[in-house]
């Protein structure tokens, strides 16, 4: 028995399959058209525009950051200066803007007499203050008063003669205007640790004393270098050596070990064989050492 369909039936079957294919593929065609519309050039342009705005918005902080970075480059003063004498262009040479410099002039107009007061001026960045603080000095607070008033102060507070720094008493030091009991004690305390002063500049190493105070009192002081108390490198132990402000424990230990190997030092320069003692360090501690 033959299973083949009549010709007319085959036509009906093919027609049915054709419509079935149409029903299957038409939704896919619409889906493809829709996705093409979503990815049309107009949409891409919009997206690019969005990212363009986004980049603009993010570029602003970057610009500010670079501006701020440029403003951190400040200049160190070429010489010591009194901030009360600085003019607008002087502050601008240090790296401040004209506006910042004008604000500082409003403060210095009434006089500034300490580093603390200078540091509190809000327009002076910490980076600039760190550069200038060691170059700043201040005038006598009463410098602008009349001569009669100054003479009445000086008659009471200024010493009658120059004071020798290495043998002076606390009372003698207190007689210097600007020293007082606190600094007099600190000067003597540091003198004992050093073994005596060899330079007026060493006063700036005294605890809490800044350069401006040291500079103000230096005309009333003198130094006798023969009054130094020296450390014998052939006898002093580690404790004695390390107690000196310029000698660390490691340096003291190195000196004692070298001495043990040599038996004793023949000349002071031998301690420079230690890797811990540079030429600069040796010159600094040499006045306080002996054989």
Structural class of the helix and strand makeup? Answer: mainly alpha
Can you tell me the residue ranges where pLDDT is under 50 for at least 5 consecutive residues? 40-71, 142-159
Number of strands: 4
Strand order of the largest sheet: 1-2
Could you say what the CATH architecture of the domain at 147-227 is? Orthogonal Bundle
Put simply, the count of helices is: 13
Order of helices and strands: HHHHHHHEHHHEEHHHE
Largest sheet: 2 strands, parallel
Question: Within the CATH hierarchy, at the fold level, what is the topology of the domain at 147-227?
Answer: DNA polymerase, domain 1
Rg value = 42 Å
Tell me the name of the CATH class of the domain at 147-227: Mainly Alpha
What portion of residues is helical?
A: 40-55%
Terminal CA distance reads 136 Å
Give structural notes.
The chain is mainly α and 291 residues long. Helices cover 54% and strands 3% of the residues. Among the domains are: 83-135, no CATH class; 147-227, DNA polymerase, domain 1, CATH 1.10.150; 231-290, Orthogonal Bundle (DNA polymerase, domain 1). The longest helix is centred in the first third of the chain and has 32 residues, at 7-38.
